[in-house]
UniProtKB/TrEMBL annotation:
It comes from the Bacteria. The active site is at residues 344, 363. Residues 33-65 are annotated as: Disordered. The keyword Acyltransferase applies. Gene3D superfamilies: 2.60.40.3710, 2.60.40.3780, L,D-transpeptidase catalytic domain-like. It comes from Streptomyces cremeus. PANTHER family: L,D-TRANSPEPTIDASE (PTHR30582), L,D-TRANSPEPTIDASE YCIB-RELATED (PTHR30582:SF2). This is Ig-like domain-containing protein. PROSITE patterns: LD_TPASE, PROKAR_LIPOPROTEIN. Residues 33-52 have a biased composition (Basic and acidic residues). The lineage of its organism: Bacteria, Bacillati, Actinomycetota, Actinomycetes, Kitasatosporales. Pathway: Cell wall biogenesis; peptidoglycan biosynthesis. Residues 259-395 form the L,D-TPase catalytic domain. Keywords: Acyltransferase, Cell shape, Cell wall biogenesis/degradation, Peptidoglycan synthesis, Transferase. The keyword Chloroplast does not apply.
């Protein structure tokens, strides 16, 4: 019994000792875990603090110059005139480079104050370009920006081919005539993007003949000696759904003396006036009764010292389909219509027909020599004293009046009808 008590006491002391030992281990283990967790948190905080210090240092060294490049990177259908540009705030540009897909550089100019850049020439259509820019701030710290973009394709753009040419000198009847390479459905916007003015102060109005042709003229002929200016501001103008204009240019031409020549088919004579005074009367041979010359006001649109005239090209053919005439060296020819009406020299007809009979297929013939080398013939004189844009009026012909859009002949519309064709 006593022994049993002693044994239990020893056992209890052993268990207590073991418990104490295990408790110590647990405590030690608990201390070890807590120490490890505190150490990890301290490392993370240190790394974060170090990163913040690095970021602050980097920000301190960053240039204040802010570069803006237009268009946005990846842009498509970019205009070829004014869309590519670079500006900078709080700094100055030091280098701008624009290259195409082949690496060819497009020259450009940084403004004198260093805050902007633009190309010196218009860009090519349907081309991928890369643009990079570098600027520095007041502390000479550099900033960089890069962009890539694609210019508008021919499929998604339109241009207007126009006459007269920049810097030319023309007669008083010369309209500004624009032929667009695609049909225009947004005529109002396109016409609003074109301005035609004259130094004479004459009102100038546009008239649409169809979806691709727009002409401008004043109510009466241009004033002799005036200067006409056309501004094409079509870059980015939507002419049709998804079809943008790409032109941005100014065209100027001068108007010469006022020469108007009147062909009287009945009397077979042409009276030439300059500034209202008769300078010469010339016998002519107009269209025959079977092929009469159009009546109306016509404008000389082209001049050729010599040219070929083949009847087959204007519908005059024989039973075999060959042209009723084919003259390869017609002298001193000047076009009056798109359909083939000319006023030209004639060396193959008898001299008696000039002033005596109307024998042509619709043209107005003047006496001339083969080779166009005799300046004393009526044909040579009229050619040498005429310019593109001069007016030739035909009257007393049995034919109808020429259509206003057959050549540059919008003068056959009165002013009210002309203005009715405007979209502005």
């Amino acid at each position: 019994m006593e022994k049993r008590v002693i044994t239990n006491s020893k056992r209890r002391r052993g268990l207590a000792y073991a418990s104490a030992l295990l408790g110590g281990v647990l405590v030690l283990s608990g201390c070890s875990d807590d120490g490890k967790g505190d150490g990890g948190k301290s490392d993370a905080d240190g790394a974060k603090k170090s990163q913040e210090q690095s970021d602050a240092a980097a920000a301190k060294d960053t240039s204040k110059a802010r570069i803006e490049i237009s268009p946005k990177s990846g842009a498509t259908n970019v205009g070829i005139n004014n869309d590519a540009k670079v500006t900078v705030a709080d700094g100055k540009l030091t280098e701008v480079k624009l290259t195409d897909a082949a690496g060819k550089e497009v020259k450009g100019t940084i403004a004198a104050d260093g805050t902007s850049w633009k190309p010196d020439t218009r860009l090519e259509r349907a081309t991928v370009y890369k643009l990079s820019a570098t600027a520095v701030d007041g502390d000479n710290r550099k900033a960089h920006e890069n962009r890539s973009f694609t210019t508008v394709s021919p499929k998604n753009s339109f241009i207007g081919n126009f006459t007269p040419e920049d810097g030319s000198k023309v007669g008083v009847g010369m309209p500004v005539s624009i032929r667009f390479d695609k049909a225009i459905t947004n005529k109002k916007a396109v016409q609003a993007g074109i301005e035609v003015t004259s130094s004479s102060g004459q009102e100038v109005v546009g008239h649409w003949f169809d979806a691709q042709r727009l002409d401008f003229r004043p109510q009466d002929y241009w004033k002799g000696g005036s200067e006409v200016t056309m501004k094409l501001k079509l870059d980015g103008v939507e002419g049709a759904d998804g079809v943008l204009g790409v032109q941005d240019k100014t065209v100027k031409f001068t108007v010469g003396r006022n020469q108007v020549s009147t062909v009287d088919v009945k009397t077979k004579k042409m009276t030439v006036t300059q500034d209202g005074k008769v300078v010469r009367t010339i016998p002519i041979s107009a269209g025959s009764p079977d092929n009469p010359t159009y009546n109306g006001k016509m404008v000389i649109s082209e001049k050729f010292k010599e040219t070929r005239m083949d009847g087959a090209t204007v519908g005059f053919t024989d039973d075999d389909g060959k042209g009723e005439y084919d003259i390869k060296d017609v002298p001193h020819a000047m076009r009056l219509s798109t359909s083939g009406t000319f006023i030209h020299g004639n060396y193959w007809g008898a001299k008696s027909i000039f002033g005596g009979a109307n024998t042509s297929h619709g043209c107005v013939g003047l006496s001339d020599t083969q080779g166009a080398d005799d300046p004393n013939t009526p044909g040579a004189w009229f050619f040498n004293n005429s310019m593109v844009g001069d007016v030739v009026i035909v009257k007393n012909s049995p034919d109808k009046t020429i259509k206003p859009d057959n050549g540059l002949n919008g003068w056959n519309l009165d002013w009210a009808a002309w203005k009715a064709g405007s979209e502005v």
